[in-house]
Amino acid sequence: MIENGEQILLRAEGREYFAVAGDEKPMHTDLGIVDLKAVPGREWGDTIASHKGVGFTVVRPRAPDLFRHMKRTGAPVMPKDIGAIIAYTGLCPTDVVLDAGTGSGVLAAYMGIIARKVITCEASEQFAANARKNMQKAGLHNVEVRHADILQEMEKLQGEGLVFDVITLDLQDAALAVPGARKLLRTGGFLATYSPFFEQASAVRAAVETEGFQDIFTITVSEHEMEYSKRGTRPSTRVGHTGFITIARKF
Ligand SMILES: C[S@@+](CC[C@H](N)C(=O)[O-])C[C@H]1O[C@@H](n2cnc3c(N)ncnc32)[C@H](O)[C@@H]1O
């Protein structure tokens, strides 16, 4: 049953809208006005009619919905790379995660859906505020967005005696944060970095080796969507490079 205050995704005629069940304000769409107060108490998958009689299917938002609907402030980590980070770090529901930079918070949100707690740091106040709104929209109360430079924040976190199971870094100077990551990781914990360029990935490689991390590997993940057309079927010819992921483990 859908509870009052839960995040919902409404879909009708190829369009979709994020909303909150029980919101006093009705949702205005070009397919009609939807009374959100009528949603609590209904079942997931039920259809609710707008005042024009268009039926909206109500579903629980999932991570790919967040990827499409979160307000972007920059390039997010793509789902194929997020998948690799989750798989190779073994992210799980007991984990406490440190992430930087937050950007729009896409990676942080995917991890927040799985992990117990995510602290994510963003140097730009404006981007941090946007990411906070995105987490609110996603209903992710376990993702704490801090407006902070990760290098300074890492020192503070050490002072607070915090330890993390997984640390993810997606920022230009990720290599500089590697020594701090080593101090904050639990033994057996994983560091995952995402670098769009060879040079950044090489700097990270050198840093994780210097810091004594083990089980180090760097990958790029290729994804080729099939294109179906009258002429034939083939992998998409769009160039697919996103970034290099380096995984390293603390022992
Ligand atoms: C590519 S974006 C991150 C995208 C994010 N991982 C996502 O999936 O939405 C990189 C972000 O790192 C932030 N950043 C750069 N240096 C930083 C630092 N020292 N501490 C915290 N954030 C930093 C930038 O402001 C930028 O928003």
TrEMBL record:
SUPFAM superfamilies found in the cross-reference section? S-adenosyl-L-methionine-dependent methyltransferases (SSF53335)
Residues bound to S-adenosyl-L-methionine are S104, G105, V106, L107, E122, D170
Q: Which UniProt keywords apply?
A: Methyltransferase, S-adenosyl-L-methionine, Transferase, tRNA processing
Q: Name one GO biological process term.
A: tRNA methylation
Question: Mind telling me which InterPro entries this protein's record contains?
Answer: SAM-dependent_MTases_sf, TRM61_C, tRNA_MeTrfase_Gcd14
- On the tree of life, the source organism's domain of life is Archaea
**GO molecular function term, any single one:** tRNA (adenine(58)-N1)-methyltransferase activity
Among the entry's GO cellular component annotations, what is one? Answer: tRNA (m1A) methyltransferase complex
| Location of the tRNA (adenine(58)-N(1))-methyltransferase catalytic subunit TRM61 C-terminal domain | 77-227
Q: What is this protein called?
A: tRNA (1-methyladenosine) methyltransferase
This entry's Enzyme Commission designation comes to 2.1.1.36
Q: What is the lineage of its organism?
A: Archaea, Methanobacteriati, Methanobacteriota, Stenosarchaea group, Methanomicrobia
